[in-house]
Task: structure prediction
Amino acid sequence: MLNFIRLLFLTVILVGLLLSTNAVGQEKKKTEKPPEPPKILMVIPPFMEQDKTSKILLRGKQLDLVTSVEAAGKKVKIIRKGKAGVPQGMSADKLGDTEVEIEITSQKEDRLELVAKTDALNSKPFELLIKNGILSEKEPNQGFTQAQELTKPSMVHGKIQANQDVDVFKIKAASGSLIQVKIHAEKFGSPLDAMLTVYDDAGVKLFFADDSKESRDASLSFKMPAGGMVNLCVQDAHDRGGDLFHYLLEVGK
Result:
């Protein structure tokens, strides 16, 4: 009888331990987060030319884990991947903390959708502009005397290289003609919060724009004053800058 009681007691303890272990396992499963898919947050540079092979850097989340990157449904060459530093005071959730560099050849499209993939998960598509004739910013261009000359229509790829950097462009057109200028930055993930300021050649401020209704990308429309020339200044609203602060400046017809 005593042995039976002991056996029963041990059985109860064993069952309790099994139930407890199972409960812990179930609780652990509940608290474990599912794996996050890769996320593309930024492309540098923000465009490529048609019928050319280019290197493009993708920044985002979980990109160091990708096994392939596709453009328009076709795999492209991965050059490297890994962790990426985040500028001081800025968020990895917005700028990413991983990166993958790819080599890609465009065709006749005007846009490509990029998708990063791991073994089980895919990123949302990220759009890359395909366009010929985009000019490169010419440094130094911090003052009126160093301003890079632009005509309309044109588009230039620039970068606010450091804190308190200002890029200056000289626009020439017929007096009274309509000038439309727009910054493209937010769409391709740049942290630039651009401001546009227009001055005449004597340094008198004529026009200013910060955020547009649609985004933080600034835009302006104005008539060219007498003399047919203005200086357009591009800068960050918070005086920030660095390697990630790329933009496209469009001077419309």
Remarks:
- The chain has two domains: 39-130, 135-251.
